[in-house]
Write a structure and sequence with these properties.
This protein is mainly alpha-helical and 85 residues long. It contains 3 helices and no strands. The protein is 88% helix and 0% strand. The longest helix has 30 residues. The protein starts with a helix and ends with a helix.
Length: 85
């Protein structure tokens, strides 16, 4: 995003992204195998990455997103395999 647009968006939705991420991570503390929460954490980190001005921070957020996506997918596959037995 252009710097001005990113700054405006960050001011507008940045606190909501942080709040949502915090709530989802708390959910995962309570239910560590909640694949839905992991999927949403993935999306929140991607949203957070869009708001980052620093390329390093953006890459770190995207890496985190990918890790949560992979965990979510693995849990869903395991649940599907268990259900099919």
């Amino acid at each position: 995003l252009p710097a001005k647009a990113r700054d405006e968006l960050t001011q507008k939705v940045g606190p909501l992204v942080d709040e949502g991420l915090k709530a989802l991570l708390k959910e995962l503390d309570l239910k560590p195998n909640d694949s839905d929460a992991m999927g949403y954490v993935n999306l929140m980190y991607r949203q957070k990455a869009d708001l980052e001005a620093d390329a390093g921070a953006r890459e770190a957020d995207l890496k985190q997103a990918g890790q949560f996506f992979d965990k979510s997918l693995a849990l869903r596959k395991a649940a599907a395999e268990k259900a099919s037995k």
